Amino acid sequence: MWDIVRSIFPYAIAYTIPLLITALGGLFSERSGVVNIGLEGMMVVGSFTSALTISSLYPIMGNSAIWVGLLASMVLTALFSLLHAFASINLNANQIISGTAINMIAGALTVFFARNITGSGNIRIVTGLLRKNIPLLHRIPIIGKLFFTQTYATTWLVLLILLISWYVLYKTPFGLRLRACGEHPQAADAAGVNVYFMRYLGVSISGAFAGLGGAVILVTYSGEFNGSVAGLGFLALASLIFGQWKPLGILASTFFFGFASTVANVSQVVPALSNIPGLILKAFPYVVTLIALVLFSRRSQAPRAIGEPFDQGKR
Amino acid sequence: MTEKIGKKSKGPLGGFKAPVIPRPVVVGLSAVILGLIAGAILMGLTGNNPFEGYQYLFKGGLMSVERIGDTLATATPLILTGLSVAFAFRTGLFNIGASGQMLFGGFLATAVALSWTALPRPVLLLCILLAGIFGGALWGLVPGLLKALFNVHEVVCTIMMNWIAYWTIYYQIPKYFKGAFLETESAKIADAASLKAPWLTNLFDGSYVNYGLFLGIFAMIIVSIILNKTVLGFELKSAGFNRHASEYAGMKVNRNIVLSMCIAGGLAGLGGVTLYTGYAGNIQIGVLPSQGFDGIAVALLAANSPIGVFASALFFGMLHSGKGFMNAMTNVPPEIGDTIIATIIYFAATSVLIERVLDKIKSKRRGDK
C-alpha cells in the first residue's frame, strides 16, 4: 500500500496544482461577487498562450522560455477575462451565460488560431519543466519521499501564491474590501469602496490564475496544447464549492480531487487498484460535490451577493 | 434575464404605424450580425478573404438539396437542446446540463437500439425514443430535486451531472457495446434500429436527414402548446418571473421546478436520440456533445420562444454544416463556425449593450420629429 501511495504521490501533486491555482482564481472572482464558470475556457487560453510563446521562443531562449510562457499566459488570460468582467460588471449580463460564452469562445478561438499556425490545431512544446528533488529536505523520512522528491518548480510557485492569497484575502484591507463586494456590495460602496473596480480586479486575478493553471498543465504533464483541458476548469469550480470558498478548504478539496483522479488514471496498471471500477473513481469527485452541496445547503458559505449585478440603489 | 427578453417593445411612436419588428428579433439579429462581423475580422486577421469565406460557408450549408438536407439534420439535435434550455429558462432555471442529458439519453437509446434488435421496427423505434427521453429526464430529475428540496443551484449541479454522464459513457460503452474497430466508440447501430429514413434520404439526394427532424418539429409544437396554452405552462412561467409570488398564489413551485427540469432533460435526451441513433449512427466516448452547449446559444438567440428556437437552430445548423465545405475550399479553419456561434452568445448575453444603442437611435428619431 505504502509503495502505491509513494509511487502515485508525485503524479497526484502534479495533477492537483493546476486545479489548485485555477480554483484559487475562481475564489478571487467569486469572493468579489462575480460567478466565474468560464474558468475552463480561461485555462484553455492559458494553455494556448504558453504553448505558443514557449514553442516560438524556445529556439532563442532555451529553457527560460518556459517561464516567459507562464508569465505570458497569465497576462493574456487576464486580458481575456476582461470580456467576462465587462459583460457581468458593466452590462449586467447573466454571469453564467457570459461564462458559458467565455468557455465556447476560448475553445473555438484558440483552436482556430492554432490551426492557422500549425495546421493541425495542436501545438507541441519541445521540453517541459524537469522534476527535481529539493536539496536536503528530500532526505527527511516519509515526508521527504512524498513531498520533496521529483517536484516541479511550479508546484512551489503555486503553493507560494496560495499563501500570499490567503494573507491578502484575510489580513489586508484590500482583502476585506474584496470580500465585502461579494457579501454586501452596497455596504462596501457606502464605505467608499469602488465596487466596479474591485470586481474587475477579482475577475482579472481569476483570469491570470486560471491562465497559469492551463500553462502549468502544459509545462508539467501534458506537453501539448490540443484545445481542451478535459474539464479541469469545471473540476476546479467543484473544488471551489467543495472547499466552501476558503483558501485552505480549496487546498484540501483540490488535493482530494487530484488524488482521486490520479488513482483513477493509474488504476489500470496498479494491481491493487484494478478491482475498483474506473467509473467509480472518475465520477467520484462530481458525486462527492453533489453530496457536499446538499450537506452544506443549509449553511453554505457562498458569498451572499454572488451572481448579482451591483445595483447602487438597491438596499 | 428572461423578463427583459420576454418584454415586447411598446413602441410609443404616436401616429407612426410602420410594422414594428419585435424587440427580441431586432436584438437577436443584431447579435447575429455582430457575430458574423467578428468572424469576418478573424478571417481577415488570419490573411483570408472574409467574403470568399462566407460565400463558401453559406454555399456549404445551402447550395444543393443534399446540403440543405444535411443542414436540417445538423440542426435537429440543436432544435431539441435549444428547446430544452429555453423551456428551463422560462421556469427561471438555467439548464447548462443539456449536454449530459443528451449523452445519457443517447446512451440508453443506443443501448436499446443495439440490444433489442428482434423487435419490429416501429416498436423498437418507440422504445428507443422512450429510453432517450427517460435517460435525459432522469439526468434532469436530479438537479430538479436538489434545487426543489435543498435549494442547490441548478447550474453547478447540472455541470456535475454532465461529467458524471461523461465518465459513465466513457466506461460503460467499451464494456458492453464495444465497436468493431475502435475502442472509443460503440458498435454501429443497424439502419433498421436507427432513425434513418430511406425515403427522406432519397428526397434530399442522399443526405443525412432523418426522422429526427419530425421529432424536433413535433417537440417544438408541443413545447409551444405547453408554454402558451396550458395551466402548467402558465405556472412554470410564473415561477420563472417570480417564485415567491407564485408560491403565495398557491402554486406548487417546488413540484413545478422538478417537472420543468425533467421535461427539459427529456427534450435534451430526445436530442441525444436524434444525434446518436439518427445523425451519427453510434456513440463516441470521451466527448461531451457540443450540441448541448450550442443549445444555450440557440435558446438565448431565440429569446426562449419555441419558434425562435427552431429558426436559430436552423441558422446554427447551417453554420455547422457549411464550415467543412468552407474549410475544403479556403484556408479558413472550420472552428470559425464555433467561434461565430460563441461570439453570438456573448453578444446575446450582453444584449443590454444592443438595447442601449437601440434606445438611443429611437430617442434620436423621436427628437427629430
What do these coordinates show?
The complex is a heterodimer of chains A (315) and B (369). By secondary structure, chain A is mainly alpha-helical. Chain A has one domain (2-232). Helices cover 71% and strands 1% of the residues of chain A. Chain A has helices spanning 2-31, 39-61, 64-90, 95-118, 143-147, 153-171, 173-183, 185-190, 195-222, 232-242, 247-266, 278-296; strands spanning 123-124, 224-225. Chain A has a two-stranded antiparallel ribbon. The model of chain A has no long low-confidence stretch (mean pLDDT 87). Chain A starts with a helix and ends in a 19-residue tail after the last helix. Chain B is an all-alpha fold. Chain B has a single domain, classed as ABC transporter involved in vitamin B12 uptake, BtuC. Helices cover 75% and strands 0% of the residues of chain B. Classes of the chains: A mainly alpha (315), B mainly alpha (369). At the A-B interface, helix 3, helix 4, helix 10 and helix 12 of A face helix 6, helix 7, helix 13, helix 15 and helix 16 of B.
Neighbour order of strands in the largest sheet of chain A: 1-2
> What sequence of helices (H) and strands (E) makes up the elements of chain B?
HHHHHHHHHHHHHHHH
Percentage of residues assigned to helices of chain A: over 70%
Report the sheet-strand fraction of chain B. Answer: under 5%
Class by helix and strand content of chain A? Answer: mainly alpha
CATH-defined architecture of chain B: Orthogonal Bundle
| Total beta strands of chain B | 0
- The number of distinct helices of chain B, counting runs of at least 4 residues, comes to 16
Low-confidence stretches of chain A: none
Q: What is the total number of structural domains of chain B?
A: 1
